[in-house]
Amino acid sequence: MKIQHPALVELLQRAYSAEKAAAFAYIGHAKSLKDPAAKVAVKQIEDDEWGHRRNVLAIMQQYGIPVSRFYEVKFHVIGRFISASCYVIGWFMPYFFAGKLESGNVCEYFVMMKYFHALGIRQHDEILYEMGIKEKEHEVYFLEQIKDSKWLPYFEKIFSWGNQTTANDVDLENKLPVETSSQYCKTFKAHEVEAANRQAKGKS
Ligand SMILES: [Fe+2]
Ligand SMILES: [Fe+2]
């Protein structure tokens, strides 16, 4: 079965490749760390990202969606670049930018869920929920490492992420169940999501 939802197809292709960039980045990040426990933790996050990539690919294959060569090359370069930069930008920044990135990734998976719902497809809810929540756990882990750093308040002001600011509304202490979790991320790219769903409905 093919899906008639250009934004969803694009998001799946981008997420598939971006997961590779994240995994590459965490390889460099883990290697640049000295603390053995921190190395293990970041290595686990790298493994999670490879798992996400496999999950996204399985969904794509179900609908005959090809891997985007453009995104594969683009995110390969980005991932390698970030990976290498971890050795030179100090201890704080790799944690900070990883956390900021994860913060945005959370909603990408809930947006995917909303796109699927617009097509009446609910069979991926569980896996998308699991991935969105996992990205939140990654965000929380990275924030935990730097929450007391003297740099954080400055970076938070400039890059809008930190102790007070996040790009999503997921609260790990009070999680919504899978069934109602498409309520997450209501304001995240809201106009874009709505327009994409309207366009998809018009097509079907
Ligand atoms: Fe991921
Ligand atoms: Fe992640």
Can you walk me through this structure?
The chain is mainly α. It has one domain (6-203): Ferritin. The protein has helices spanning 6-32, 36-62, 69-85, 92-118, 125-146, 152-159, 190-203. The longest helix has 27 residues, at 6-32. The radius of gyration is 17 Å and the shape is globular. One fe (ii) ion binds at residues 19, 22, 49, 52, 105, 135.
Feature tags:
mainly alpha; 204 residues
Question: What is this structure's SSE topology?
Answer:
Layout: H1 6-32, H2 36-62, H3 69-85, H4 92-118, H5 125-146, H6 152-159, H7 190-203
This protein binds fe (ii) ion (2 copies).
One fe (ii) ion is lined by residues 19, 22, 49, 52, 105, 135.
Quick recap:
By secondary structure, the protein is mostly helical. It is 70% helix and 0% strand. The two termini are 13 Å apart.
Distance between the termini: 13 Å
Unreliable spans are none
CATH class membership: Mainly Alpha
In N-to-C order, the SSE pattern is HHHHHHH
Helix content: 55-70%
